[in-house]
């Protein structure tokens, strides 16, 4: 009896795996078409210095405007793009688009672009960025490359060389989702980061004194190591007050703005010098 049940469960498992594989192939196929059909779009979310309420960076966040399924979030398709290698092509489009978009903003606003570990493995990111900046006519120090800890785990040596090259190019490096992965503090010395971004999990869990203690400790660490610090995922005034009390001023979160399409940013971003805001 238990044997037949086991077989039944196995078949069920097998079937759901097949369905999942089919769905993935469908998404892969749709995604290839999406690139050609221009269905990918960049949204931007501001990172604000709360001391003067100015935007100093916009983070580019990818969206897929699917003709029937509507706006699809990156978490639903980036992993598939990574598995299939499509992320290389998509990532090229993202950085080109983001750099072109940024040229329209005032010179003191940077653009932050997320890069996948797969891009670093499969393409020459330094060459890509150098040629993209030149083509767009964007100053290198206006581009910030965001990577997560995942990239530091494999090929640490090679990654370090690439990071040094990026720094020489004048591009800035940000360690995203800090504290969420396999953080090792030695990364902070070993790799030439300009900035760390505390993962939003710590913010949503801030009522827990232990999470708050972690935030405080990371703040002190960043200060000692001369790294800029951003906290992402700030949704309430209460969270903001606790963070500013701890000397954290660079904030990203729904409290200020959700990610929005490029065309909707202009009123925020463009403050022509000499004109009233
Ligand atoms: P991320 O780089 O850590 O980006 C921050 C994510 O947090 C974004 O989700 C943003 O919308 C969300 N967020 C910001 N503030 C708040 C808040 O106050 N509350 C909540 N609940 N969420 C907030 P999104 O846009 O869905 O992007 C998810 C992830 O997808 C990104 O995480 C990044 O890892 C990846 N991603 C997005 N665009 C790209 C891209 O162009 N290339 C690559 N390789 N990855 C990308
Ligand atoms: Mg990011
Ligand atoms: Mg993040
Ligand atoms: Mg993330």
Automatic annotation (TrEMBL):
Limits of the EAL domain: 24-273
Name of the protein described by the UniProt record: Diguanylate cyclase (GGDEF) domain-containing protein
Originating species: Rhodoblastus acidophilus (Rhodopseudomonas acidophila)
Part of the intact protein present: 490 to 766 of 766
